[in-house]
Design brief:
alpha/beta; Rossmann fold; seven-stranded parallel β-sheet; two-stranded parallel sheet; 9 helices; 9 strands; 48% helix
């Protein structure tokens, strides 16, 4: 059976690839974007199979309205993809309050509003799949991306709890955690804090450490997501790209080792005898 999708951030990057992959195999898509003119070619090619919706996900009322309009238009929703988001570059000291709030409003609250809007509809129909586009930065953290990491860590925690809450209703949840891809995530889509000279050496070191990482082809991401939403038992978490699997196990091993090394202090803090 064909699926009905609701995808945010559809104008470019991963969102665009997800929309195209779904449409090309005969599914129907409610595609949101801040500027729906960016979807005109897809409307011309696929007609009524795509419903373009203008949406800024930080507007809670608009987010709820967009989900409701999509459901009324197509009659159901099978896959909800929270893809809208952007990167915020800057050390913790450099970031302004507004930059921090804007990052959380889009990457975390935007996904929360769409999820909350969709849940009653998915519960009623007894099925559905919520896909949260997170990041390898949602399970580890990188210098100069602290608040971006924080927004994705928040999304990860929310979604892990959500998966347990809604499993009994037939609703599945998947966190997609991409590594580096050839999108404009670090380019025109990004926001950059004002730079303090004190962190110039750090920025140079970070850039050098990333220079050898293999960058993924975003056009391959759409077919990969189709495999996930078609699976009978989809994963709660899945990496997109090979780089994350090379770095994350080391991070988890270091965390476990630190907890074990300090286990005596943990016991002391609880009041257990030595």
């Amino acid at each position: 059976m064909s699926k009905i999708w609701f995808i945010t951030g559809s104008s470019r990057g991963f969102g665009r690839q997800f929309v195209e992959a779904a449409l090309e195999r005969g599914d129907k898509v409610a595609a949101t974007a801040r500027d729906t003119d960016s979807l005109a070619d897809l409307v011309a090619a696929h007609g009524e199979a795509i419903l373009p919706l203008k949406l800024d996900v930080t507007d809670k009322a608009a987010a709820f309205n967009a989900v409701q309009r999509a459901h009324e238009h197509f009659g159901r929703l099978d896959v909800v993809v929270n893809n809208a988001g952007y990167g915020l570059f800057g050390t913790v000291e450099e970031l302004t309050e507004q930059q921090v709030r804007d990052q959380m409003e889009t990457n975390f609250y935007g996904a929360l509003w769409i999820t909350q809007a969709a849940l009653p509809l998915l519960r009623t129909q007894g099925s559905g799949h919520i896909v949260q586009i997170s990041s390898v930065g949602g399970v580890t953290a990188f210098p100069n991306l602290g608040v971006y990491n924080a927004s994705k860590w928040a999304l990860e925690a929310l979604s892990e709890a959500l998966a347990q809450e809604v499993a009994g209703f037939g609703i599945k949840v998947t966190l997609v955690e991409p590594g580096g891809f050839a999108t404009d995530w670090a380019g025109s889509s990004a926001t950059f804090a004002g730079q303090l000279p004190a962190y110039d050496d750090l920025r140079a070191a970070v850039a050098a450490s990333w220079s050898g990482i293999k960058v993924g082809d975003p056009t391959a991401a759409g077919p990969a997501l189709l495999k996930i939403v078609d699976a009978d038992n989809p994963p709660l978490r899945v990496f997109f790209g090979t780089a994350p699997l090379g770095m994350v196990p080391h991070v988890y091993a270091e965390r476990l080792k630190t907890w074990e090394d300090w286990a005596d202090v943990s016991a002391q803090a609880q009041g257990d005898p030595a």
